[in-house]
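Exercise: predict the fold of this chain.
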Amino acid sequence: MFDFMFALVGSTMLLIVSIYYLREFLKEGKSFKGKLTLIFIIFFSSILFIYSIVDVTKIMLNQTEVKEGKCEIKKNIGYRGTQYISVYFYEGNSYFTFPIKKYPLIDEGDFYCTLEHYRDTDIEISLKVFNPNSEQELKIK
């Protein structure tokens, strides 16, 4: 959730600053290369802003979805050693990825999982992992 809010605030600030500087560039008649660079930055920040706004509506309206079923959990190491877990649901062939610091006690393997997340996003609200044999909830936090 923090990553999402950081992207939203950052893209909004970048968009506002870029539009301000574009206005100043157009007044002063700067070089074509400078204008082109600024237009590219505005285009990039606009796409990031729109991408973030689409998710904001789902969060503000609390549009959640619960995914449950047999799942496989894997621990992965990403860029610069960042550790995260991937939860693969067998039904529907869907998967979700979260930072491992949210669930430090989680183990790899096949489980029965219940995941509540915001619809059409990768932003999770809660994750519950159950032993597939005994249906006992496992401690993951």
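Check your answer against the key: The chain has a mean pLDDT of 83.
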